[in-house]
């Protein structure tokens, strides 16, 4: 065989079945010796892989883990958290219907519904999930999908899933719960009757700021419908990203245990700082959803702490510049402690009036607490805040 042919021949190495870590299947396509076998796999008569846009071993491994953690029949991995929300909504409501957005929902979800779904005929409506009477009145507008976060971004509002989901179901409304902030370490929404759970695996599931992925978790029927959408729309995750996220997810419990404990201690310390007018953490008795969190959450209250600085945006800017090793990033969920500004980043899709309704202004800072020594975390914030007091 000529060298030009030799160099492109596939390797003859067998894939070992006893590897401790999953191998990376960084391939876009698979080879066959039979046309009938390809047809059998594509029609579902045989199991196997043909093209990574549809299925990949690394992607399936991550999905299986997420389904186990959430206690569901199946899971679908997508190229981003936003893709997961979109594919899940289309799977739950293939035809235009009402999309009920909980008041505290992530700004990116608002943008998705306004820019993509409303032009297709979907009707977006706000609901206050903490007001049962108001919710039921809005839900009377007709069937659709309620989108709610188990733990909200950025003020840590805890959705009363135990009462909100039955209220929605009584009106024929399906419920999609974004469990990104709480993770299944703290909350499993299917316990309260959720129809679908989604995650931005970019955050705590991956946990190291090195992947962008999403996950849809639910029944076999819903995940099959979502998988078809992901395949046809090309919301396909990269195999290596799925491999990285699975590696990160192996330490989810250890990380969330530490980060949640650190967050609680940081929240208590920040309450004593004169530059701060309010600290938001559902593990604090001062939080409006403290009682709900005590009932629904297990093993702590998450890794997100938010605070409101008395002197507004100028104080935020000075604090960010004074922090020595806590960095500002427009994301969250890393093993290191970071800060973000919701008005500028996560909730820029909301109008000033909508942000006021949610309770966000330019003085609000979101903190994603990491696994460092809590003494070091507190010390960095204290020195930065003392400079602006």
Give an overview in words.
By secondary structure, the protein is α/β, with parallel strands linked by helices. The protein folds into 2 domains: 35-249, Aspartate Aminotransferase, domain 2 (3-Layer(aba) Sandwich); 252-386, Alpha-Beta Complex (Aspartate Aminotransferase, domain 1). 39% of the residues lie in helices and 15% in strands. Helix 5 (107-117) links the parallel strand 2 (98-102) and strand 3 (123-127). Helix 13 packs across helix 15. The radius of gyration is 22 Å and the shape is globular.
Write the layout of secondary structure elements.
Layout lengths: L2 H4 L28 H8 L14 H14 L3 E5 L2 H12 L5 E5 L4 H11 L5 E5 L4 H8 L4 E6 L11 H10 L2 E6 L4 H4 L9 E5 L13 E5 L1 H14 L5 H11 L2 H19 L5 E5 L9 H7 L7 E6 L2 H11 L4 E2 L9 E3 L11 H7 L5 E5 L5 H13 L3
Helix pairs in contact: 3-10, 4-9, 6-7, 11-15, 13-15
Concise summary:
The chain has helices at 3-6, 35-42, 57-70, 81-92, 107-117, 132-139, 161-170, 183-186, 220-233, 239-249, 252-270, 290-296, 312-322, 352-358, 374-386, and strands spanning 74-78, 98-102, 123-127, 144-149, 173-178, 196-200, 214-218, 276-280, 304-309, 327-328, 338-340, 364-368. By secondary structure, the protein is of the alpha/beta class. It has a seven-stranded mixed beta sheet, with helices on both faces. A five-stranded mixed beta sheet has the order 8-9-12-11-10.
């Amino acid at each position: 065989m000529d060298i030009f042919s030799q160099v492109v021949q596939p390797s003859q190495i067998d894939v070992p079945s006893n590897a401790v870590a999953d191998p990376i299947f960084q391939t876009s396509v698979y080879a066959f010796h039979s046309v009938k076998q390809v047809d059998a796999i594509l029609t579902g008569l045989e199991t196997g892989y043909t093209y990574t846009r549809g299925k990949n071993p690394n992607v399936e491994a991550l999905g299986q883990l997420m389904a186990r953690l959430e206690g569901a029949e199946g899971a679908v991995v997508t190229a981003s958290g936003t893709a997961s929300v979109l594919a899940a909504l289309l799977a739950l409501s293939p035809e235009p219907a009402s999309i009920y957005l909980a008041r505290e929902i992530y700004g990116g979800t608002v943008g998705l519904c306004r820019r993509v779904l409303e032009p297709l005929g979907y009707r977006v409506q706000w609901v206050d999930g903490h007001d049962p009477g108001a919710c039921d009145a809005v839900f009377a507008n007709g069937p659709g999908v309620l989108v709610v976060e188990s733990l909200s971004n950025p003020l840590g509002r805890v959705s009363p899933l135990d009462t909100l989901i039955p209220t929605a179901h009584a009106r024929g409304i399906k419920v999609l719960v974004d469990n990104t902030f709480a993770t299944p370490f703290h909350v499993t929404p299917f316990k309260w009757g959720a129809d679908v759970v989604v995650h931005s695996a970019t955050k705590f599931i991956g946990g190291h700021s090195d992947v962008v992925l999403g996950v849809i978790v639910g029944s076999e029927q819903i995940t099959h419908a979502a998988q078809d959408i992901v395949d046809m729309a090309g919301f396909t995750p990269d195999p290596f990203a799925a491999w990285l996220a699975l590696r990160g997810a192996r330490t989810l419990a250890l990380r969330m245990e530490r980060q949640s404990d650190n967050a609680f201690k940081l929240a208590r310390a920040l309450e004593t700082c004169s530059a701060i007018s309010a600290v938001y953490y559902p593990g604090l008795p001062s939080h409006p959803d403290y009682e709900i969190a005590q009932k629904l959450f297990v093993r702590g209250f998450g890794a997100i702490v938010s605070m409101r600085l008395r002197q507004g945006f100028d104080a935020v800017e000075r604090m960010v510049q004074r922090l020595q090793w806590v960095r500002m990033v427009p994301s969250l969920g890393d093993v290191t402690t970071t800060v973000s500004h919701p008005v500028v980043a996560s909730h820029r899709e909301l109008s000033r009036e909508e942000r006021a309704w949610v309770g966000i202004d330019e003085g609000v800072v979101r903190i994603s607490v990491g696994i460092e020594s809590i003494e070091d975390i507190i010390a960095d914030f204290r020195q930065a805040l003392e400079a602006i007091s």
